[in-house]
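[Solved] Which block belongs to which protein?

Original post:
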Amino acid sequence: MQYDNFINGKWVPGEYQANVNPSETTDVIGYYAQATSSDTDRAIQAACNAKHEWGETLAQNRSEVLTHIGEEILKQKNQLGKCIAREEGKLVTEGVGEAERAGRTFLYYAHQLQQATGEMFLSSRERTSIHTVRKPVGTVGIITPWNFPLAIPAWKIAPALAFGNTVVFKPATLVPASAWNLAKIISETNLPHGAFNLVMGSGRAVGDRISKSKSIDAVSFTGSGETGKQIIQDCINIGNKKVQTEMGGKNSLVILDDADIPTAVEAVIDGAYYSAGQRCTATSRVIVTKGIIEEVKTCLVNRIAELTVGHALDSTADLGPLASENQLSNVLEYVKIGVNEGAEILSGGAAFDASTPGFFMQPTLFTGGRSDMRINQEEIFGPVACLIEVDGIDEAIETANDTDYGLCAGIISESPQSVNKFLREVDAGMLHVNRSTALTELNVPFGGTKSSTFGPHEQGAAAREFYTTSSTVYTTTTS
């Protein structure tokens, strides 16, 4: 079946590309239209034409639109979750959970529209009052990755629409089906034509057009550091375009001698291996003090041996496949790099053939790691973690900070003093205590430091900073 782009309120055909199931490569999910540069230009123009009407729409009416979208996603969460599993490879239970989060994200921002947003200030002058007002940015380009094909689009599109902006949405080419399903739900609301546009296609034909267009007022991007830096530069060159990028992480979990070992092991399993490690918040650097490292090794090896890798629709599987053949090849190349750098494989380290043709890989654990190894500095984005031994809390913090990334970090410890020191000194945007680094919630800010994030953080109330502009209003009475 063929699926079209959605531009200016209409479904627009084009050249089509197959969407293949990474758990079962003989399963073609559908054929999805590939937008051209001209298609993208038409979508941008449509969004610009609609921004006044949508920006002037009453907040109550915008809230009703978002509520409808959120409720419809929740009604369809099982079908949407299965679609996520088929096209991205995460387990169907994780896919359903992602769909539910997407629906609740739209409902969250529908509710936010009913909350006060301005501030009032005292003036130093007589008969003068001061307050702030929030206004839409205008037309927003949204470019999303393949690892969360519904949740990440939701946490960008929902606040963009909520605060009165129009949207041009480019999903990752690997996961068009989830994006199309979301667009179908949005298309059935009473949004003005052009207020929301879906342009599926390549980065060159679509992404570059969005980032370089003078008609786009802001760009929100999640993806690789290389692409993110280019988008930042494109937006800076325009001179008047807001930009927000999330560009990954190289996240550390510190495990101290006083840690509860079962808690630590489950935090590593969740952070490093679930979703096949394809989360920007995944744990890849496991920093362990020498007093317990041998016990942690043994427990982790035993726990990894219990994990089952299989088809994403298999209810008995713990991990699905990697999202593509290219992704599998990249991760396997990093395994070779780790061995060549002197790290030792304790578990996994190879691809394997499952009952269906797909991109399956064993969960992999290295030991003997050093912080300066490439496997401990570069984002691998697969089910791979490396143990790094340290003497104590000071060296653990120094090691956790020894990376260009700063998305998130965690600590497993029963010591309030060690935890407080970690929270004060670790340079990361999200910090976790006695839990996985991969766990986040939709109503709080999401973002990092250093090379992980550029611009305002996402999600929760923080999203308002990006999707609106603020004006300060001085009013003096004349009598």
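(Second protein starts here: sequence line, then its structure tokens.)
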Amino acid sequence: MISSQPRSTFWLIVRHEARIMFRDGTLPLVAAVLALMVGCGLFVGLAQASLRDRMLVDVVKHERETQTENRQTLNSVLAGKEALVPFSNPANPAALAGTLAGRHATLPNAALAALSVGQSDLMPNYYRITYLSKVQFMYDTEIENPWNLLSGHFDLSFVIVFVLPLLVIALAYNLLSAEREQGTLRMLCSQPISVVTILGGKVFVRLLAVLAVTIPLPLAVLLLIRPEARGAEQVMLMLSWSMLVGSYALFWFVLAVLVNAAGRSSSANALIMAAIWTVLVLILPVALNLVVNVVSPAPSRTELASRTRVVTADALLE
């Protein structure tokens, strides 16, 4: 009976908090905004994954057609019917390996690629293999808006990393401060109930609402639209992804609890949580990137091209 009392009190707080948040419209509004963001991010991810799938199909098709065309041209040249310049002659090994029929190395999309598009454009999933210089690598990749390549697409990972903490802050910045400002915290503490139980019930309602939108929706869409995501290995990856998202959301709720425990006002809590979000999500990654660039700067592609040309010219003169 003693052990069941805290549990019953906890669920009483959960039901009471859920009713309050539904009636004032906070929980439905946050859930709707989060569902809209998750839907948009997932739509972009699925569109990009489908685009890259079609790209691979087109690359393979183009390679097959090019090989057929080269074979026909080669038969015509060997039969003496056509006279071609050396760089267009498939009988010339240099021309065939350089510009006419280089094979493509391809990297198929993973089944869960739609969950995180990110900066995948910086690593094209196909590359044409030829005997040409490495300088050609600079001009042989996909071309897209440089800002998109730098910042990545608005995908589901962007929503979880950047938007989800903001919604958690909107739900949890006044977990205790609102009760204190309304004068109900002392009344609650006068009952046989601990502050930990109060906070646990409040956090449980909010965390459940956030995860109920963030995790099942994208996984259900993936399982419905992409059959390759239904394998046992992919299901395990989905479970790992779900645990990661849940841990990330729980981290921000724990931060909100710690901020509320300091006893400040709701407005002060909101400002502190916004400042923490700015530091952890925006400033810290940029600062780490700057530190890495200072400690181990990336080589200049222009310098690479210049040195390659110099080495090639020196080799030709020897």
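Accepted answer:
You had them paired correctly. Confirming on the second one: The first strand starts at residue 103 and ends at 106.
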